[in-house]
Amino acid sequence: MRSAQKSAYWAASKLRLLFAWAAIAILFAASKMHAQDDLTTQNGSSALNGGWITGPASNPLSLLNGPANRTFGKTVPYDFPDFHPMTSLDRRLPHWIAFQAEERLRFEGYQDGSFQPGNNDSYLLNRLRLQADLRPASWIRFSAQVQDARPMYQKPPYGPPNENRWDLKLAYTEFGNPMKHSISVRIGRQLINYNNTIIASSEWRNQGRSYDAVVTNLQNGRFHLGVFAASVVDPLASGISHHQQGNNVYGIYGRFTSVIPKSDLEPFVLWHVQPSVVIDPAASSARGKQNLRAFGVRWKGQLHPAFEYSVQGVFEEGTQGSEPIRAWATSDGVAYQKQSWWSQPRVFAQFDYASGSSNPAAGVHRTFDSIYPTTHDRFGITDILGWQNIQSYRVGGTVSPHVRLTFTAQYLDFHRAQQNDELYNNTGTAIGHGIAAYGKHIGDEADVYSWYEINRHFNIGAGYGHLGAGSFLQHLAGIPAYSNFYVALNFKDNGQIAH
Length: 499
What we know:
- The chain is mostly beta strands and 499 residues long.
- It has helices at residues 2-29, 39-42, 85-91, 471-477; strands at 97-111, 121-137, 140-152, 164-175, 183-190, 211-220, 223-234, 242-243, 248-257, 263-278, 287-304, 307-320, 323-337, 346-354, 390-402, 405-415, 423-424, 430-431, 441-453, 458-469, 481-493.
- The chain has a single domain, classed as Porin, CATH 2.40.160.100.
- 9% of the residues lie in helices and 47% in strands.
- The longest helix is centred in the first third of the chain and has 28 residues, at 2-29.
């Protein structure tokens, strides 16, 4: 009875907090507003102005559609003529209707997949998205997007995340214009990308991630606030996907610009409830309800134009089954670039830590939960590991011998934070049961990748990652390494949709 009363108290407290923040934001909205981009749901980057502390692998689609969405590059002519069929079509249509299109073709492969010797494969991934936008008035917009994502020449079985045929990716109504109005509300199936480490759309996956949600964005000059209630969509192999009943995430995500000079401060609160999860994978397979609350802040900025930094801390509490949650994580990085030198060399360093359970049988859940992150390049481009029970060191550099071309190389070293806890992959699944005695060192990884902007709407890239097994992985699977590669062609034409 006390447990139920306590859960109800916390639920009521969080709802009151949501309404309190919303009320504060509305007070801000009553004052004079400035037009702002809808950055709270379209950016999520780790550096100022849409950039990344680490290399530009994290969101290659953000390089397309011009300088406003790019993470690097300059406003200079492209090497090849542009190709923009949706933009050309939209110019011939009435102003209240517009179309968008996206096509991505990626050839990728791996060796010793899932840490199984001899498990090799290579295949094509194709993803097509078509979107229609209707704006009958300046303050309302209806948007719908269909997606066809499928693998070719891949070993069966098929299914998500590579196969998601003819799904309804987006379907929402937006009240207010986020580029012109201080308050805007989106209702329906949409993307949420506040912070790539913990609540994002994970666009590298072939199907990506959508949410059935209500999102309110409020902006007042240097102040931005997103308040949302969402359920992540559980993708099907074919047909219209649905969200899981009872699996809900609520949040408040703020962004304060230049409160500290040349920096953004991003405080946030997330509340995640799930009807059934494994309570503590390192102890047993018992399941229970999750009631997780995450409190965090990210501070990103520039000490001067050449030196960037990002510091983030997250604390989690709540209950997992009958166990109290006490977990935390941090993600911190710096980058330095010499723009006056040829090829504009840039070096970066990153440290990531996520807590684990030193004694899984103690009755306290201490393994950090990364909720819904972007998985690609969080811990190298092999995309194996997740932000749970891990300690990661990362160094690398990027050069740009041409204004539209970048090359990046990086090295990462991985350890388990707690030897008695499990190793977790990028979906949060525990692997490596019962081998705690084999040490903390997971392995180290070396990556190289490149991106070239062909024109405003096309880019092409390739990458290779090699994860060398440390003492833990060698005992887990008996393999010396895991490696993967990709070659990707991206096209994205946002058309002439008026914001």
